[in-house]
Amino acid sequence: xxxxxxxxxxxxxxxxxxxxxxxxxxxxxxxxxxxxxxxxxxxxxxxxxxxxxxxxxxxxxxxxxxxxxxxxxxxxxxxxxxxxxxxxxxxxxxxxxxxxxxxxxxxxxxxxxxxxxxxxxxxxxxxxxxxxxxxxxxxxxxxxxxxxxxxxxxxxxxxxxxxxxxxxxxxxxxxxxxxxxxxx
Length: 184
Fold this sequence. Notes:
Layout: E1 5-7, H1 15-24, E2 29-31, H2 33-39, H3 47-60, E3 64-66, H4 74-80, E4 85-89, H5 93-103, H6 110-116, H7 125-142, E5 150-153, H8 161-168
Parallel strand pairs: 1-3, 1-4, 2-3, 4-5
């Protein structure tokens, strides 16, 4: 396989479980969100460009990039890394909202504020839902005719090794990992 693997799912859609599975298949997996929150100048006049550049640089050093803000940069990643594979982890909006609310504190960090456009989850549930649904639809539309390099996985509905290894051309391993499963 040439290119990279990009996990385009929103946080709380199985991204940690997918990362664990990909590590188990021997890929180096990286996340951008921690570095972004520590190093980006959130008051920058060209914030979108700074985030994009930093994420693209992080992606160069790993086989797989997962978690935030990948769902918002899928077009840039697709353009910068030809012959890559893209995996969208998803779940239904209601369970995603509940899991998000259970896991994250109500106050957003700078990256989540950039992604969702609001300072907090509470009182903005409709905004989160609309953005989650709209962004997932945009991702699917972008890759609509590219089944060989795009996979949608719904881990809560039972997707796991068969879908992943068939997509990547790898062999099965032990049971599919589930990180943070008890959190909702």
